[in-house]
Write a structure and sequence with these properties.
10% strand, elongated, alpha+beta, calcium, secreted, 4-stranded mixed beta sheet, 7 helices, 3-stranded antiparallel beta sheet
């Protein structure tokens, strides 16, 4: 793993970084397929096959045929090649521009098949997101905690582990996208990204899920029985996990029994309904959660792990990305009024 830290008051010297490829421009210009939205004769300043009007919509550079400097033309990354190679579906993205310029300066291309690359920065895209991964699984990720002043050591560590988790195949619900999933006891759940949980008497443990927990219904919450294990996980395994959080509040009890889900100070015998995922309704059913450690994908989107340097083919998985880079959502986004 390679790390580069940038503060919010300055930036790295990026002069001399090559950001365009004339060879890719030639290749793109040779592609005969028209670009949707480009009128006949429309201005195409960089001659990459995409008119300036569409480049403005895509957010690519009209003066460079290779906005992100990755040796794939903007045309190929946005529209594929000749109708026979659908690069966008395979996860190509021309818009990690600033990230790739920095990565290209400090991280040689020959290392890419063997390393993940993380950028610690203040913010990205001007928002209040804790970070983002370049797809799931992926090579690269960003940690951006400027919206909370850089964060505590625990918040930094939790966010680094969270985004790395996306890089190695984990979603916000483990194997699904159900965020704030109450029965998913993992750093990938937003409830635990900044805090961790209790484990075996230790507080603030940062970990991916090591237990499998049965499906959970918001409409029938039972504090006495808490969560149910799925074999090979046992009740004893669940009993070790405490410091659980629901609706941004840490509650008493453990994952096996006597868990004060609504934090009212008592363990209620009768079942009740409670909204866990901020949906506005208390009738969601969350699927069983996985043991993350048995499901990790270390190949970085199908390209990390080859013994021979320079090979670019994937590792043979049927689906290169579980979530393609351009479909990734910012992680743990906070409204500007709540950022502090």
């Amino acid at each position: 793993m390679a790390f580069l830290f940038l503060n919010g008051c300055g930036s790295a010297d990026l002069q001399g970084v090559e950001t365009a490829s004339t060879l890719q421009g030639v290749a793109a210009a040779a592609v005969p397929l028209p670009v949707p939205g480009c009128p006949v004769g429309a201005l195409d300043t960089d001659s990459d096959g995409i008119c300036d009007l569409v480049e403005a919509v895509l957010g690519t550079n009209p003066n460079s045929s290779d906005t992100d400097g990755d040796r794939l033309s903007d045309y190929a990354e946005a529209f594929g090649f000749g109708g026979v190679l659908d690069l966008p579906t395979l996860g190509a993205n021309a818009r990690w521009t600033d990230f790739d310029v920095i990565k290209g300066k400090y991280f040689t291309a020959s290392r890419a098949p063997y390393f993940h690359y993380m950028l610690f920065a203040n913010r990205y895209s001007g928002g209040n997101s804790s970070g983002i991964s370049r797809g799931i699984p992926a090579h690269d990720f960003v940690v951006t905690l400027g919206f909370i002043g850089g964060g505590t050591e625990l918040q930094q560590a939790g966010t680094l582990m969270h985004e790395l988790g996306h890089n190695i195949g984990l979603r916000h619900g483990g194997n699904d996208d159900s965020n704030y999933k109450p029965n998913y006891l993992s750093i990938m759940n937003y409830e635990y990204q900044f805090y961790g949980f209790g484990k075996g008497g230790l507080n603030n443990v940062l970990d991916y899920s090591r237990v499998q927990v049965a499906a959970f219904n918001e409409a029938t919450v039972n504090e006495v029985s808490a969560f149910a294990p799925v074999a090979p996980t046992t009740e004893a395994d669940l009993a070790l996990i405490s410091g659980l959080r629901f609706n941004n509040v840490q509650v008493t009890g453990n994952a096996s029994a006597n868990l004060d889900f609504d934090n009212n100070g008592t363990i209620q015998a009768a079942s009740y309904a409670l909204d866990f995922n901020r949906s506005g309704a208390a009738n969601n059913v969350f699927p069983a959660s996985q043991n993350d450690w048995t499901a990790l994908l270390y190949d970085g989107g199908g390209q990390i792990g080859f013994a021979a340097q320079g090979l670019s083919q994937d590792l043979g998985r049927e689906e290169r990305f579980l979530v393609a880079p351009e479909k990734m959502e910012p992680c743990l986004t906070v409204d500007a009024r709540d950022a502090r």
